[in-house]
Amino acid sequence: MSVLLLPRLSKPSVEEILSEGMLYAEAITEADLFETSKPFVTYAATGGSKVSDDDLFEFRHLMVNLAEKFGFPGRAKATRQKADFDSKAAAIIYTHPLLQTPEVLRDDVWAYMATVLLQDVALWRFQSFSINRFQGGIRNAFQRLWMRANCLDRGSESASRWELINQLSEDAFVAITERSSIASNKKLSLAIGEAWLRFYNGKQGLVNMEPIMRKAIILIRMKNLIQNIAQLNKQECEIFMDRIFAYAADKHLD
């Protein structure tokens, strides 16, 4: 089966596009930005077929329609509104047919998504400008959402497939997805996310999870150097994680 090739944008191209004023915020239309950016866009030379412009625009319009439900293009009214957009967008990004390709593992593909195809949505979502939200990487406006779905998807057979995406805090997402030793191991990522949720629910949410999560992640990473946590069976892993979170909470309260 032929691989679907997605447009790519290098870091220098991202910087040039943004510095040259090719911004939706400056009244450049969707079609104008799409066309004027084409000289900067590259594709893999061989090994697949290029995505069509129509398919790219279909995905763009789907994401724009979602953002409109949360106040786009006006200012998002609350942090919760942004979080709700992120959780819904993560599920769409991870499951959309356009992105069922190995190309999603490339930073320069996500640079194109944020800088060209969905630039106005990225600018709306992150009101204070940072080039990290446009260049590829763990802070990219949309790549970060794909990463959290990849780490915390319970699977299509689950009746509550996206509960972790909907419930975890931003700090918890960062703790899991921005550490390669955790994010690269889906079983470990899921186990941490599930333990976070169990602990949070067990305390009825009346607990400051941020310092507890940070302490727990440090302990988990240290333990994982000695013992491959992902090799534990489900019950053993749950007991292990619950003990880690309980210990981290006790240390936080000391």
Write a brief structural summary.
This protein has 254 residues and is mostly helical. The protein is 59% helix and 2% strand.
Please give a structural write-up.
With 254 residues, the chain is mainly alpha-helical. It has 2 domains: 1-154, no CATH class; 168-254. It has helices at 11-19, 30-36, 53-68, 79-95, 107-117, 119-125, 143-152, 163-167, 170-177, 180-183, 186-202, 209-226, 234-253; strands at 3-5, 48-50. The chain has a two-stranded parallel ribbon with strand order 1-2.
Report the total helices: 13
N to C succession of SSEs: EHHEHHHHHHHHHHH
- Strand share of the residues? under 5%
Subunit arrangement of the protein: single chain
Percent range of helical residues: 55-70%
Spatial extent as radius of gyration = 20 Å
The first-to-last residue Cα distance is 57 Å
Domains, number: 2
List keywords for this structure.
mainly alpha; 2 domains; two-stranded parallel sheet; 13 helices; 2% strand; globular
